[in-house]
Amino acid sequence: MNVEIIPAIIAESQEELSEKINRVKSHAKLIQLDVMDGIFVPNKSIDFDFDLPKTGCKFEAHLMLKNPDKWVKNNWEKVSTILIPIESCKNPEELVVFLKNHSTRLMARKVGFALNPETPLARIKDYLDEIDQVLIMTVSPGFYGSKFLPETLEKVRQLRKLKPDLNIEVDGGITPETIKMALEAGANLFVSGSYIFNSQNPQEAIRILSNLIR
Predict the structure, then answer these.
(1) Domains of the chain (ranges plus CATH)?
(2) Distance between CA atoms of 124 and 134, rounded to whole angstroms?
């Protein structure tokens, strides 16, 4: 199971998206795109027909949308992993099957479900054998710099006991002060947005976080 730091990008335009990718592409294997519609969460990000530059990175899309089903059907080929909010997903099983059917030898597409802080694990238990990972939101979603909620790590602990080999991702408020708590709870993928992109040196910020989970 990989242990990784994943920079998360919020962007209002193609120009901003490309600029932020360029800032971290040499220092991360995987970059998360935060896709928000201003309805499911009170913010908008990458809500346009975006293009991704050719890099050595893979991309995952964390959907924070009222209608994730539509986005998946229209944009599945742009990224290697799609993380779907279980709270607004109308057809969870259908989307899992759809993405698995569009996985190829050259692009092994992965699918996971994301859970907001108030959402119990019970919402996704029926799908755990079918998906590749679970994203546990450790903040109220929508903005860089939201307050870390340590109580959300109980879901990480429970999930690690249920599925010892599952990729468990935590997203929100991940800094040098919180990352060890998430690691000890059982997470192996760590998404960081504000700590990395608000720093003067994103490469150094990624290095600091990486050293803390080794």
Answers:
(1) 4-212 (3.20.20.70)
(2) 9
CB 17 within 8 A of CB 79: no
Say how far apart CA 13 and CA 124 lie, in whole Å. Answer: 33
Cα separation, 177 vs 34, whole angstroms: 23
Determine contact, residues 60/34, Cβ cutoff 8 Å: no
pLDDT in tens, 3-57: 999 999 999 999 999 999 999 999 999 999 999 999 999 999 999 999 999 899 9
> pTM value?
0.95
CA gap 154, 159 in Å, rounded: 9
Question: Which residues are catalytically annotated?
Answer: 34, 171
Task: State residue 183's pLDDT score.
Answer: 98
- Calculate Rg over the CA atoms of the chain: 16
